[in-house]
UniProtKB/TrEMBL annotation, chain A:
It comes from Characodon lateralis. InterPro entries: ARM-like (IPR011989), ARM-type_fold (IPR016024), ARMC7 (IPR042462). Coiled coil: none annotated. It comes from the Eukaryota. SUPFAM superfamilies: ARM repeat. The lineage of its organism: Eukaryota, Metazoa, Chordata, Craniata, Vertebrata. This is Armadillo repeat-containing protein 7.
UniProtKB/TrEMBL annotation, chain B:
This is RNA-binding protein 48. It comes from the Eukaryota. Residues 153-162, 181-193 have a biased composition (Basic and acidic residues). The keyword RNA-binding applies.
Length: 191, 354
């Protein structure tokens, strides 16, 4: 697959297109998982962002978040975590109501999915969306995660609380938690 | 330099066996068009899974820790390392925790050392982000984000330049299309490159681009395999600069430097320079070439045509490495300038008639 730039770009786009086509056409769950994982991994390379954007892959990943298949959700969220670092893809995700769809996955049972969710939410934080990202419900969730046994979850939640909201907002969320005990019911993901 | 012992408890606490340490089964049911060269598991890599901390399992318990760390140091500076005695290990093997200075080094080490034979054992290398501190995690995310944003800005700039240049060079572009061999030029990159070249030197009809073999050294530029796993690639992902190495340089590292340089500047590989600009220098070269004509192969007369691009000057950011690179290049030049050795013809012995 290693070719010169001059011939690589159209072939790459066609290859990605064939992956998307296979995902849409196949009935095999296994094939869908494989293709979804491939696309999510391609989303890691900034060279592919433009093509994936053109192929509407951000919307495809967002659609996976509501699926019952846990692998679909995990791979879709992983893809969003990779894509959302790019400003253009981030905007597409935001326009498609990404914040609420992504937030729902904070209660997912898989640790990898939750980690991708937290990172995606951090990527989606812009001056316009910051207030939505730092809503009390989300902050209470992060506070709960910051006490988790898993170091990765603790670290990411700590970074979120330090970088995506103010100290005052965190304090208020803490007070609300003590008062209402609402966050205790949020399940921690299994390892 | 690497520190063998670390007494900090926060990142060297008792290890726990996490799911991402386990080697998953490879997928065998992929259709051919998306089956890679190497069988891999179905797994998605995100920045959360990667880390400067890696764990190396399967190291034979024969006192080869130094050799292992020397091997790791080929891929980048090792900041700290220690054996993980508490981690469950197979019989007669040991487990080590290694902290690299850069994520790209860890990526390179994982790619090159995972599943490789080492003193009779097979290494299994995996990332262990659970050893990061909060600050490590924050810096990792910030580095990744700034790299992506930078890449997006470069793409945007290339797009803007291409749009700005194309209206002013339409005539030259027509000529260019006539001269260049017909091929399917649907690539945006290629059009950008042509537009840029034409716009700078629109007085003269540009000559055909050199043959594709000229770019053969670029085959080492890493791209994803068919499954999109770029996380295995070690160069030009996070940092465009060449890595500084902790230990012995190898030719693969030389390639890495080449990749870093080339990967970040694909457009300027060919330059079409007007004849007028080089007439004076060509005259001088002609005079010089008459003196050295015996040593130069393939030059029969005055230089005509655009100056071929010089080989990229490599800077490995290290004096000893630069010296090594210079030595290798001069050796290659010397070897290349020797005429092909003619086969020694055996004189046929006259057959004795009995």
């Amino acid at each position: 697959m290693r070719k010169n730039d001059s011939t690589e770009a159209p072939e790459r786009f066609q290859y990605l297109q064939s992956l998307v086509t296979e995902f849409q056409d196949t009935d095999s769950e296994e094939a869908k998982e494989q293709v979804l994982a491939n696309l999510a991994n391609f989303a890691y390379d900034p060279k592919n962002m433009e093509y994936l954007h053109e192929l509407q892959v951000p919307d495809l990943f967002l659609d996976m978040l509501a699926e019952e298949n846990e692998n679909f959700v995990e791979f879709g969220m992983g893809g969003l975590c990779n894509l959302s670092m790019d400003p253009e893809c981030r905007d597409v995700i935001l326009q498609s109501g990404g914040i609420s769809l992504v937030t729902n996955c904070l209660s997912n049972g898989r640790e990898e999915t939750v980690l991708s969710t937290i990172t995606t939410l951090m990527n989606l934080a812009t001056p316009t969306t910051r207030s939505k990202i730092s809503e009390p419900g989300i902050l209470q969730c992060m506070l709960r995660f910051s006490l988790a046994e898993s170091p990765r979850l603790r670290n990411l939640a700590a970074v979120f609380l330090q970088d995506c909201c103010s100290e005052e907002q965190v304090r208020q969320a803490q007070q609300q938690m003590q008062g209402l005990q609402t966050a205790i019911g949020i399940p921690l993901p299994k390892k | 330099m690497a520190a063998p012992v670390n007494k900090r408890t926060d990142c060297w606490r008792s290890p726990e066996v996490y799911k991402h340490h386990e080697q998953q089964r490879v997928c065998i049911s992929r259709p051919k068009y998306r089956d890679g060269r190497k069988a891999k598991a179905v797994k998605v890599y995100t920045i959360n899974l990667e880390s400067r901390y890696v764990m190396v399992q399967g190291v034979p318990a024969i006192g080869v820790m130094t050799e292992l760390i020397q091997l790791c140091a080929l891929y980048g500076i090792v900041e700290e390392y220690r054996p993980l005695d508490e981690y469950p290990a197979e019989e007669f093997t040991e487990v080590y925790l290694v902290k690299f200075q850069k994520l790209t080094s860890a990526r390179a080490a994982k790619r090159n050392m995972d599943e490789k034979s080492f003193y009779g054992g097979v290494l299994h290398v995996c990332y262990v982000p659970e050893y990061e501190t909060v600050e490590d995690t924050r810096l990792k995310l910030q580095d990744r984000r700034s790299y992506i944003v930078r890449a997006a800005r470069n793409r945007e700039r290339e797009r803007t330049e291409a749009t700005q240049e194309s209206p002013t060079s339409s005539d030259a572009t027509t000529l260019l299309n006539k001269i260049l061999p017909r091929r399917d030029e649907t690539s945006k990159n290629e059009n950008t490159r042509e537009a840029l070249n034409v716009s700078h030197y629109s007085e003269f009809p540009p000559l055909p681009l050199p043959p594709e073999e000229h770019y053969s050294f670029r085959q080492n530029v890493p791209t994803e395999d068919k499954m999109g796993t770029l996380h295995n690639s070690f160069s030009n992902i996070e940092q465009p600069q060449a890595e500084s190495l902790g230990s012995n340089p190898t030719t693969s590292n030389w390639d890495q430097g080449t990749e870093g340089r080339l990967g970040s500047n694909p457009v300027s590989g060919v330059r079409l320079i007007p004849r007028i600009a080089h007439l004076a220098s060509r005259k001088r070269k002609m005079e010089r070439s008459e003196e050295h004509s015996a040593n130069v192969s393939g030059e029969n007369g005055p230089l005509i045509g655009p100056k071929l691009p010089e080989p990229p000057k490599l800077d490995m950011e290290d004096e000893s490495l630069n010296t090594t690179v210079t030595l290798i290049r001069s050796t290659m030049t010397q070897v290349g300038s020797f005429p092909e050795v003619k086969k020694v013809e055996k004189k046929a012995k006259p057959r004795r008639r009995i």
